[in-house]
């Protein structure tokens, strides 16, 4: 097991080095034009204190909004999924509602959310919507993961639907819920950035739009790389939490 983890870590490290080298080479030889600067040139702008401060503040804002959206979206989705399990008559309607909401482009909701929750609240709400469907599907699937034999035993013992939910279905659903959280974390980052495009006072989304409009190519790439790093770190952290916790519920 340990050798497998070491091998996986080495493969990830080698892949990251190759990706960074490819980014540098593409920019250095202008294989995709001047819009793709060398990675070293992008990193050079971080030597400026003002740029570091701007990028750090924007990164913190987006991380806070994505985290809040992930928390809200996950809680609401889990509650709705549990409601469908406790009241099976609602399950079909909740499934269709979740599918319809997932089919609506998030970017189309921006103007509507600005008129309702305001520019500052829109990023967190869009982030919550971005993770909602993933969490609903993973939770619903997890609640159905308990074995039929175990359900039959509880039914034979006269356990109520609520008791079966608390003692059997929810514990069985934990691994899939953690899977959903891991997959939803990058979606929350994307949702927060999309929400910031509609005039949020700060954040990586605002920085991306501003840098693009002012032809600040290096700053644009730095903001994009910061967003990608935030998504990767959030995925890695929740993936680690899943690995540490999921085995207890198998």
UniProtKB/TrEMBL annotation:
<feature type="transmembrane region" description="Helical">
    <location>
        <begin position="219"/>
        <end position="241"/>
    </location>
</feature>
<comment type="similarity">
    <text>Belongs to the binding-protein-dependent transport system permease family.</text>
</comment>
<keyword id="KW-0812">Transmembrane</keyword>
<keyword id="KW-1133">Transmembrane helix</keyword>
<protein>
    <submittedName>
        <fullName>Nitrate ABC transporter permease</fullName>
    </submittedName>
</protein>
<feature type="transmembrane region" description="Helical">
    <location>
        <begin position="124"/>
        <end position="143"/>
    </location>
</feature>
<feature type="domain" description="ABC transmembrane type-1">
    <location>
        <begin position="55"/>
        <end position="242"/>
    </location>
</feature>
<feature type="transmembrane region" description="Helical">
    <location>
        <begin position="97"/>
        <end position="118"/>
    </location>
</feature>
<keyword id="KW-1003">Cell membrane</keyword>
<dbReference type="GO" id="GO:0005886">
    <property type="term" value="C:plasma membrane"/>
</dbReference>
<dbReference type="Pfam" id="PF00528">
    <property type="entry name" value="BPD_transp_1"/>
</dbReference>
<feature type="transmembrane region" description="Helical">
    <location>
        <begin position="176"/>
        <end position="199"/>
    </location>
</feature>
<dbReference type="InterPro" id="IPR035906">
    <property type="entry name" value="MetI-like_sf"/>
</dbReference>
<dbReference type="GO" id="GO:0055085">
    <property type="term" value="P:transmembrane transport"/>
</dbReference>
<keyword id="KW-0813">Transport</keyword>
<keyword id="KW-0472">Membrane</keyword>
<feature type="transmembrane region" description="Helical">
    <location>
        <begin position="68"/>
        <end position="90"/>
    </location>
</feature>
<dbReference type="InterPro" id="IPR000515">
    <property type="entry name" value="MetI-like"/>
</dbReference>
